[in-house]
Write a structure and sequence with these properties.
This protein is of the alpha+beta class and 198 residues long. It has 2 domains: 89 residues; 98 residues, Sandwich (Immunoglobulin-like). 27% of the residues are buried. InterPro entries: MmpS, MmpS_C. Its main location: membrane. It is found in: Cell membrane. This is MmpS family membrane protein.
Length: 198
């Protein structure tokens, strides 16, 4: 091969390639560890961390062995953390969704659902309450005693919009809750006012 051709295609430094793999593995490990608690990312943090393990093992044959092994360890932590969070019952979104669907199906078989609105505050009176009833119509109540609650019966939870707003004058904390068949659907706390939608 002529010298000019060799000059156009310089030989790549293997150490630089291994270093790039080590840093890429480290980045994958960070994504795996930081993304583990985010259930909305589903299984992607585990996949990225798995890729980081492969890159880290390859990089360990180069000059950056410490960085490569550290990256592999970080990737393993990310994978283990993701698995633990997703297998834990309180944080398992798939299990919670399946349980809710099962309860909805059972409630439908029993001819309807019970939706309960709740307002909780430390002050004795709630200035104003607005909520949507089983037909989706807005109902209002003024100057009610705290805590306040009302239960509604509906045959169609999925096609009805439910919402609750509670206000207090004293700028105290107030918490609103929406429950379906005694299962908490949403809960919000605010100062002076709280809004929940389901």
């Amino acid at each position: 091969m002529p010298a000019s051709a060799r000059a156009e295609h310089p030989h790549r430094d293997p150490a630089a390639i291994f270093t790039a793999f080590a840093w890429a593995a480290f980045a994958c490990g960070m994504v795996g560890a930081v993304g583990a608690p985010l259930l909305s990312l589903w299984i992607w943090p585990v996949i990225v961390a798995g890729l980081g393990i492969v890159l880290g093992i390859i990089a360990a044959f180069g000059a950056e062995r410490v960085l490569a092994l550290l990256s592999v360890g970080l990737c393993v932590v990310g994978i283990v953390f993701s698995i633990l969070i997703r297998s834990s019952a309180p944080f398992n979104a798939v299990t919670m969704s399946a349980e809710l669907n099962e309860r909805l199906t059972q409630a439908a078989a029993d001819e309807g659902f019970t939706v309960t609105y709740e307002l909780i505050t430390d002050v004795p009176r709630i200035t104003a309450v607005s909520y949507r009833d089983a037909d989706g119509e807005v109902q209002q109540r003024d100057n009610v005693s705290a805590p306040w609650s009302v239960s509604l019966h509906t045959n169609d939870f999925t096609n009805t919009q439910f919402g609750l707003i509670g206000d207090v004058r004293e700028n105290a904390e107030i918490t609103c809750r929406v429950l379906l068949e005694d299962r908490l659907i949403t809960e919000r706390t605010g100062t002076g006012s709280a809004r929940c939608a389901a």
